[in-house]
Design brief:
Helix content: over 70%
Structural class: mainly alpha
Strand content: 5-15%
Number of domains: 2
Order of helices and strands: HHEEHHH
Shape: rod-shaped
Number of strands: 2
Radius of gyration: 38 Å
Number of helices: 5
Largest sheet: 2 strands, antiparallel
Distance between the termini: 81 Å
């Protein structure tokens, strides 16, 4: 079955529908007004059902990748598409706050160690002080 078979079947179905519609239109001149209005209402309902069927999911090719399209986007689809972004943003904010808390804790520990140490204040201005801290001389 080739890819043109479904398209050909759809074209034949559309052609048959148009033939039936022509046939029905030909007989409407002899009908009374109420029957004609019922027929018109039935046609409107049939067209509405047809349009609903056309919004079924279809695979759409975009730039070498296939995506699933849903026609009209419902509120659920919109929420489902935004929800991952909200979760990602919340995760990033959480990571930032945890890292900021850790950094503040580390700085507080360093400050407490410097203030409680027995070094003279002139040692902090000495260029060798960083080397002294790296070698663990302050422990």
């Amino acid at each position: 079955m080739s890819t043109s078979d479904p398209l050909r079947a759809q074209a034949l179905a559309d052609q048959f529908g148009r033939a039936v519609a022509r046939r029905l239109d030909a007989g409407t001149q002899e009908m009374d007004y109420a029957a004609g209005e019922r027929l018109r209402a039935a046609r409107v309902r049939a067209l509405a059902l047809r349009k609903q069927e056309e919004t079924a999911p279809v695979v759409v090719g975009r730039g070498g990748a296939a995506t699933l399209g849903f026609g009209e986007r419902s509120w659920f689809n919109r929420i489902a598409s935004v929800l991952p972004l909200v979760v990602l943003a919340a995760g990033l904010v959480l990571i930032y706050s945890v890292q900021a808390e850790r950094r503040a804790s580390e700085l507080a520990e360093v400050d407490a160690a410097l203030l409680t140490d027995d070094l003279p204040p002139a040692a902090y201005a000495d260029p060798g002080f960083v080397q002294f801290l790296k070698t663990g001389g302050g422990n």
